[in-house]
Task: structure prediction
Amino acid sequence: MGGQRHLRDTLWHLQRKPVGGEGVAEQKHWQEGMKTHKNIVYACFGCLSNTGITAGLGSLEAVKELGLDKVAVGCLASLPLGVAPVIGKTKAAKKIITVDGCPFECSRKTVEAAGFKPYKSFTLVRDIGMNKKALHEDIGGDLKPVMEYVSAEDVKKTKELVKSAIMEE
Result:
């Protein structure tokens, strides 16, 4: 019971206090009016399944090809915490793209709950026909190295989805 109360109190304080001020030199934070990435991708990176891993890797591959001036992968966890530089960069983005692995659509829902409307939202099981594989299913049996659950072809398809959304006029 005490642990749950501590967690609840910690979350309560985080929600009411700007994150990033303590022990961080403020001048290093991004502020409105500074240069930033033109677009931002919020991707599932749920490494409990192949779809989450693929969403994250495909998004990173798109950034590698297009360059950080055109697009960056945003910190999804910072949105509900109200981290000022991330909120500001998201507001400044021309396009917000969400990439989810599965129908839970955690990235899209988190972005929308923070008050943003994605330009495009992709769900890999729907948009590229991925089959979700929960990695815990193989524990105690035929557990493979994590990257053996990820298809290079699915990562490439994901990258192309993100790139096409960014390049649309």
Strands lie at 39-43, 71-73, 95-100, 120-123. The two ends are 53 Å apart (CA to CA). The longest helix spans residues 50-66. Confidence is low (pLDDT under 50) at residues 10-14, 16-20, 23-27.
